[in-house]
Amino acid sequence: MKSRWKIPEQWTMAYSQGQRWGHMTTNISKSINAVLKGTHNLPITALVQSTYYRLGVLYAKRGQQHHASLASGRVYTDDCMNKIKCEVGKSNTHQVIQFDQNHYSFMVHETVSPREVQPIGYFEVNLQRKWCHCGKFRAIHVPCSHVITACFYARQNYLVLLPDVYRIVNVFNIYKEEFLPIPNERYWPTYEGGTLYHNSQMRRIKKGRPNSTRIRTQMDVKEKVPRKC
Questions:
Q1: Which range scores top for mean pLDDT: 84-88, 94-98, 128-132, 203-207?
Q2: CA-CA distance, 137 to 163, in Å (whole number)?
Q3: Would you say residue 182 lies in a domain?
């Protein structure tokens, strides 16, 4: 089995090939860890109960928020529009050079440093392919400042380049599902399956350093160096 570090598309957005969406898939595991931070050491029944209750409350709260957003007439999520607003501010300092009579291919020149990792330079933009040389448009699927500048020059609406996944109606469809309340145990049907018992030998010893269960590789092998003193 290949190591995940040898497959860049599984851990970096630069090689994701357009299959990742920030507000839906990025850091999902971190979010779940934050939700279960206070209960991950509890028994499995308490862990399942806490997960169920917290998700029920979260779905109800997020569903109300996005329903209110739809009622107010908004189309895209707040995170998406805030990102767009930031990129529009950067686009005011760019210059455009047209390379196509059909208003598809452009060269965008940055005149002011964007305070990012990459230096000031020229970036190729192709509106037909939804592609920019800076890589931000392909990574987060939100038009970067270079694409927005090209859209202004070509008199096109840059919002049409946003995918439907950023629409509030699609996010609302995720949170419209409801969790049913768990009835009192007296109303539960009689369980006729097997009974599970915990293994006392697997209980962690509180004193001392816990034993490591990580699978060691050649990287973990240390050569013994003779002491010189």
A1: 84-88
A2: 11
A3: no
